[in-house]
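User: We ran a pulldown and think these components assemble together. Before we commit to crystallization trials, I'd like a predicted model of the whole complex to look at. Sequences follow.
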Amino acid sequence: MEKIDSSRFAWVGESAHDREAISRPSLTFWQDAMRRLVKNRVAFICLIVILVLTVFSVFAPMLSPFDYREQHYSHTNAPMGTLCNESGVPGEGHKHIFGTDTLGRDIWTRIWMGGRVSLTIAVVSALVDLILGSVYGGISGYFGGTVDIIMMRLLEIINGIPYLIIVILLMMIMKPGMITIIVAYSLVGWIPMARLVRGQVVALKQQEFIAAAEAMGASPWRIIARHLLPNTLSVVIVRVTLAIPGAIFSEAYLSYLGLGIPLPMCSWGSLAQAGIENFRIYPSQLIIPAICISLTMLAFNMFGDGLRDAFDPKLRR
Amino acid sequence: MARYIIKRLAYAVLTLFVLISLTFFMMRMLPGDPFLGDKTVSATTLANMQAKYGLDKPVYIQYLKYMGNCLRGDLGMSIVYNRDVMGIVSESFMVSADLGIRALIFAFVIGVLLGAVAAVKRGGFADSFSMFIAMIGVSVPSFILGALLQYFLALQMRKVFHINLFPIQGWGSFNQTVLPAFALGLGSLATVSRLMRTSMLDVLGSDYIKTAKSKGLSQGQIIRRHALRNAIMPVITIMGPTVASVLTGTFVIESIFNIPGLGKYFVISIKDLDYTMISGTVVFYGGLLILCTLVVDLLYGFIDPRVKLEG
Amino acid sequence: MADRVLTIEDLQVSFDTYAGEVQAVRGVSLHVDAGEVLAVVGESGCGKSVTAQTIMKLNPMPPARIKGGKIDLAGHDIVAASEREMQHIRGREVAMIFQDPMTCMNPTTQVGWQVVESVRLHNKISKKDAKEEAVNQLTRVHIPNPRERARQYPHEFSGGMRQRAMIAMALSCKPKLLIADEPTTALDVTIQAQIMDLLSEMKRETNTAIILITHDLGVVAGIADRVAVMYAGKVVETGTTRQIFYENRHPYTRALLGSLPQTDSSKREPLTSIPGTPPDLLNPPKGCGFAARCKHCMQICREELPPEFTTEDGHKACCWLLHPDCPSPEERGDRT
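Assistant: Here's a predicted model for the assembly, 964 residues in total across the polymer chains.
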């Protein structure tokens, strides 16, 4: 065996630095989630699509030379890019980017007006779902026992009836309009959210930090608001993102049944419904709103999936 | 097991009760009187008609009577068609059921297969393909998909390629069922295949699959004997909601493809404000779906041995 | 020499992850004879389970990859074996029981059927015989009412009973080698002893070689003939159970034993823990893996991998302290 110099056997002892070496930087939960979300290219593109659609919905109707109600009888059902040759209207000399509909209304302007309506309905319904569902699920899960049993039984019974049937019934007895759609959808839409929040709360309740807060004398409301809800937030955010396409779908569906936004106002659903009536001759009148609806639903769905992946610690690498 | 069945049955009965009550009170809250739309009716006729439909009695009597009628299958008279709703339902529902079952079979069989293959060959072609189908399925509402299929696969195919494979509308031949069943089922297919993929991946990563592998089973044997059965469980639980979404989907698909099913009548009755027809159809559909959910729940109890303990 | 069942030489296994190559096993050599129990001990993440699963090629490849070394199992070259050949070897030549009996059985299949599944696979027996065989196997592992139990589902079994059924399942084809990967970790202490007794009994009955993987040295003492101590993907010390417990030569083995409560100790020694965590095998240290946590660490430990030093009676350890040139603690300046 080769002789080894004794200097190499000099004692150095354990190294507190190396033995605790953590090869990955430590990040907070939210930082970590954000980092993964930004890295997820698909989710990022979806976010951009959502932002672009929102920006167009907000500003395009303002900047358009046409009004969404304005009818041009000289060029009805005009193809995309037709020049408006009607004299004396503000839009004279401008192009109908997406053409005009049966009544000669500018589809470009109507699409983005419809976007305002559809997106507002979707986002507001999702938020109402969030609030109702969190409160109901939070109370049910937190108090447990009889309260929980009764509240959950009630929920299961309502859940047994398909929500679209309830929404149709509600739409029949209320005055048609945006608020009605939001109210009708929200009256049933909060149920999945309530179940989700309850499940989360029940799981969290068994953890020690809740017991600690209770031991320190925190009131139930404080525990729900300060400890339970923030901890269920990530799951809830994902659920809200995924509830938006559901609301958009419901709005479109109701419009098709003739229970949507009353004319001359429009939504993507009512535009698609109008498009279906004459798409055999003018397919673009269906395809344009169809793309808007599908793109929005797709973007929200995939963005929601991306958020879930970003929040789910099981997928951490 | 007996407790489980009784519990499910009790839920179904309660839900049905709530559904009928809800329908009754909502119909009561409707603005105006169903007979006042027609101004030519004289006061005596009106009174006669109200007496005929029991509208002169106190609300609770009307309610009990309505409840009794619903349970006996008497859903009232359609004002527009002037015949009893149950008659229309029994005549047209078979068509809807035919379409719905085709769509469901399509969604479940293809969805389960696609999801399973996607999970086994993770990252391969089948995985990407199932992802693509799932994307279309979740983002294109069925009635838009139906209209697009009509335009491209029926209309344009005939015009451009002179192939008359799929008729634009109507009902009767097999070819006429393909496009509506596809449009109706694709959304559910997407849900089923995504769920199946996740569940299959979960199962394939579980310890008992490792046990099976350590016994010397081949990949195919593991999938057939151990993975599929367990992976399909969560898919069965969503069968209830899937049946619901397919059935509500028939409303719009039938009117787009001009299929003489119950859904088409339902949409017309909404446009015509035929309230008895609407409430009758709602009660019928609601009851049917409650029954379907009950059947699925019970089926699940038989398939998964673990349910018996929980009760 | 007794029948050699398994020989592993210089096995290296890596996982290709997004972050890079994780060298989970970095040159492990082991051997087991028929009727012998080899205990492999070490902290979690030291490569014990990876080594065990590689013997059966159970880890999915990719991401896992055998980088080098040889595995000879009863005459089969495992490293070169195809998946089809492995299917014949698994269950028949080598079987495995896992840590958590709660999750290791298919929840929707009857226990009896699962127990004889590998018999039916490897021996092609009739359905009726298989049923009888299932009852026999369950009887062998002392499960009461085996006839009824065979028809039940895993959730109707307690944890200890499931582990018994797992042992029956593993031994049903009379394998030459049984790998028990932390078989008692998930069980109650009272059940643990029963399972270990059952394993010894089975070993005596069948003369099966057993590799017992555990992080619990207390379990080892009663049953193992030899012990291999693993750290950071390497075997740092092997020897008979006696040698490891009383003549241990590696500081890591000593530290492990120091963290074990001694009931027979006359002195009131405090329990010691080993501060820190094992190194990240994404970037394994250049020198000895234990250097950063070792009280006796020397300059050379950080720079060069220690070679293996073998005593005459077959006791092996990898530590620079054993080098003949290593000076006395005073000369090294070791103040511990």
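The first helix of chain C runs from residue 48 to 55. That may be worth checking against your pulldown data before setting up trials.

User: Thanks, that helps.
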